[in-house]
Amino acid sequence: MKAIFDFSVALVALLLLLPLTILLLVVVRIRLGSPVFFQQTRPGLNGKPFKMIKFRTMTDAVGLDGKPLSDAQRLTKFGSFLRSTSLDELPGLWCVLKGDMSLVGPRPLLMEYLPLYSEEQARRHEVRPGITGWAQVNGRNAITWEEKFKLDVWYVDNQSFFLDLKILLLTVKKVLVRDGISGQGEVTMSKFTGCEE
Q1: Cα–Cα–Cα angle for 18, 99, 183, nearest 5°?
Q2: Would you list the DSSP string of 60-88?
Q3: Contacts by 66-72 with C-beta closer than 8 Å and gap 24+?
Q4: Which residues have a Cβ under 8 Å from the Cβ of 189 and sit 6 or more positions away?
Q5: What are phi and psi of 62, to 5 degrees?
Q6: Phi/psi at 31 (nearest 5 deg)?
Q7: Is residue 133 within 8 Å of 155, Cβ to Cβ?
Q8: Average pLDDT in the 42-48 region?
Q9: pLDDT tens profile 164-197
Q10: Which DSSP state fits 16?
């Protein structure tokens, strides 16, 4: 039922939002250049790698040493707007259609985090990653990694169709008020370096 719901909603959303998606394609190309999409390998169900796709929100600016500048320096006002409104996530609906992601589930993080999880935290990969999730509507990037992982595992143990509907509705509310977009002192979320315990 979840898979059918995900596919149906993602397909309808992609069709309805096609004009907006095309507009964003053009604006991102003009404001940030090419490539328009940010693609990165992330762990999916059972940790299996897949290619996640989002609209690009940062420039390719580098320092004198040739290394990329910090996220804060590369994130433009336009990119910040895309993130705060979650418009950068629109291409992720394609990942839902492909079956790599779900509408609701733990957010897909970096591959390099996999060996850093505790056994309990790693359970977040027992379900498909989501465009939004229980942690996103309960603090998003404004909570600690440990709190986020506890919420992810809680979702794994309590997932249901009605919980997914609740999370989707809460996500709309969160996006409208632009709550919890960044961690304290960060433009997004600080890097995960392992559990404290």
Answers
A1: 75
A2: --B-TTSSBPPHHHHB-HHHHHHHHTTGG
A3: 71/186, 71/187, 71/188, 72/186, 72/187
A4: 141, 182, 183
A5: -125, 160
A6: -80, -40
A7: yes
A8: 96
A9: 999 999 998 888 776 655 545 455 667 887 765 5
A10: H
